[in-house]
Amino acid sequence: xxxxxxxxxxxxxxxxxxxxxxxxxxxxxxxxxxxxxxxxxxxxxxxxxxxxxxxxxxxxxxxxxxxxxxxxxxxxxxxxxxxxxxxxxxxxxx
Length: 94
Fold this sequence. Notes:
alpha+beta; about 30% helix; about 40% strand; globular
């Protein structure tokens, strides 16, 4: 299976929306525990959550895109931008 990385950047001044939506996002992401290899928040200069980085395994990029499409963060309009890119782990392991 291939790896894909999602880089999701929050809209400016949206920490309150992120925090309000976080429990639903974490519950949703937990249902993908078998394919999400690494995930967590991207932090801003103050140390506040300002985005998400997720590494997923899947047959095609569509697996990652479908995950993002139905993510409560996406449905709430949190993200300013989302990139889904093929990824290869070279150092370390997932």
